[in-house]
Amino acid sequence: MVCCWCGRQTIVHTSFTAINPWRRFYACPDQASDCRFLGWYHPQMCACSTMIIQGLLRPRNELEAHKLLKSTCESERFTVCSVGSCF
Ligand SMILES: [Zn+2]
Q1: Half-sphere exposure of 22 (CA within 13 A, CB side)
Q2: 77 CA → ligand 1 middle, Å
Q3: Taking Cα atoms as reference points, which of 44, 35, 43 lies closest to residue 11?
Q4: Taking CA 64 as the corner, what is the angle to CA 61 and CA 66, rounded to the nearest 5 degrees?
Q5: How far is the CA of 41 from the centre of ligand 1 (A)?
Q6: How far is the CA of 40 from the centre of ligand 1 (A)?
Q7: Separation of 44 CA from ligand 1 center, angstroms?
Q8: How far is the first Cα of the chain from the last one, in angstroms, to the nearest whole number?
Q9: CA of 3 to the centre of ligand 1 (A)
Q10: 53 near 21, Cβ under 8 Å?
Q11: Residue 10 in contact with residue 25, Cβ under 8 Å?
C-alpha cells in the first residue's frame, strides 16, 4: 500500500503524455487537495517502446484535438446565436 503526503491510500492512474505513454503512477485520491503526490508504479520504458506507443496514441490524440476544436466552434456558434437572440 502506498500512501500520499496527506496520509491517504493512493490510487493508480495511467499517463498518456508523450514522455510517459501508458505508464502507471500513484496519485493522491483527493484531486482537489494541495497534496500533489506522484509516484511511479511502472519503471520507465525504453526509448523504442516509448516511440511505438507514441505512434499508437497519435491517432487517438489527433481525434481528441479534433473533438476539442469542434466543441469550441460549436460553443462559440451558440454564444453568437444567443447574443443575437436568433430563436
Ligand atoms: Zn494526498
Answers
A1: 13
A2: 40
A3: 35
A4: 110
A5: 16
A6: 15
A7: 23
A8: 57
A9: 8
A10: yes
A11: no
Residue 79, pLDDT score: 52
Hey, what amino acid is at 41? Y
pLDDT in tens, 20-48: 888 999 999 998 999 999 999 999 889 99
Q: Rounded to whole angstroms, how far apart are CA atoms 28 and 21?
A: 20
pLDDT at position 85 over 80:
no
Residue 77, all three cell numbers:
456558434
3-state secondary structure the chain: CCECCCCCECEEEEEECCCCEEEEEEECCCCCCCCCCEEECCCCCCHHHHHHHHHHHHHHHHHHHHHHHHHHHHHHHHHHHHHCCCC
What CA–CA distance (Å, rounded) separates 31 from 73? 29
Pair 41, 26: CB distance under 8 Å = yes
